[in-house]
Design a protein that fits this description.
The protein is mainly alpha-helical and about 450 residues long. It has helices at about 1-15, 35-55, 60-75, 80-100, 105-120, 125-140, 145-165, 170-180, 195-210, 220-235, 240-255, 260-265, 280-300, 310-330, 350-365, 365-375, 375-380, 400-405, 415-420; strands spanning about 335-340, 345, 440-444. Among the domains are: about 195-330; about 335-444, no CATH class. This is Interferon-related developmental regulator 1.
Length: about 450
Amino acid sequence: MGKRNSQRKNAAMLDSDDDSSVSSSSTVLSDRSVLGTEEVKLDKDSLLDQALDASYEKRGTTREKALAAIIEAFNSNLQHQFVEKKFATLLHQCLNSIKRGSSKEISLASHALGLLALTVGCGDNAREILEESVPPLTLALKSRSDSSKISSLLECLAIVTFVGGNDQEETERSMQLMWQVVHPKLGSNVVAVKPSAIVITAMVSAWSFLLTTMDELKLNHKQWQESISYLSSLLDKDDRSVRIAAGEALVLIFETGSLEKCSAEAETASDGTREQSKPHEGYTHTLGLKGKVINQVKSLSAEAGGKGSAKKDLNSQRNLFRDILEFFEDGNCPEISMKIGGDSLQTSSWSQMIQLNFLKHFLGGGFVKHMQENEFLHDVFGFTPKRRYLPDNESRISGTEKRMFRSPNSALNKARTQLLNKQRMLSQGKNIGHYSVNRGDEEV
């Protein structure tokens, strides 16, 4: 009874106005700035606890505002101490919101769940997030009523798989779930619903993000041809964001060598011998697909722009497809140098660029904070700030655990080293990506 009274009290704090913007709830974490430093920290911790309590409330708007406050807290600081104490509670509250909430609540809960995964990094907690999340995320993705909700669910599935997935089968499962959002398996009583441009862009971007971690996606040559054909068809769509996402997915397929593997498989006869006398029909078709894509890329790299098209978006598209064309012609891969505070983060492949752009988009205003302090992201990008930004409770991690977390040769990271870091050996080039990471040094 006491707990319910406490929850109602906390809910009142977060639910001052049903019609107000959800973002207004986040101000509860910053309106006590007149206090001393220690008091501010204690106050923020207390407000985060209160927001978690408010997520139990029956009123949907109260839960939405609670989730918005939790998101801001996880963006502004890495909440290691809070997660250590309340991990299971926060996980299950996010999942409950995904199962029963409005579209708005589902979107917020999906984002909070992704932030939780990035905060805990590799380990048992990340595994638990992935295993517990896939069933409700799968169910929620089957309801295609709201584009922004589906986009948030796709991003969440990508993040929790990226962090918590230990083997290729788990990643392929998530990629297949994403693909089914735009290519559903239709039963006799199911009517196909045409996905919106927003959903297509989100699906292709999330799918590409996970493809960057794959050593070899287990698709036969027919499946690869279908995938490339679909992505090629997206290059002809009116929506520029769809074209950009499809372009990045296609160049990533070529960078990972998937097309060559597809061609080699297609060239192998059914009895396992190589057909030397004439090119296999599948191999010829695959080469034809590549030629078509290159012609589309040339056209998009020089597009004049249509009526009412935003100049910034048009320039982003031209720059992207010029770089893709350069990759096809010369084998050059993109090189990005970004300033994080006073430190330089560099990438030298399409895979890393896509990872960086996706995470920058997902983290939004929390990107710099996480890049400075998040050990998992340091490990992904091989990035070590010159000034160490340590979480408040870093001392609780033993020296052995730190080595396990950081070492690319540790048992914990052997698979991730192979899957995430192989692209660092690729050749260099230039590029601008889907979520607009600029050429040259960018001060963040």
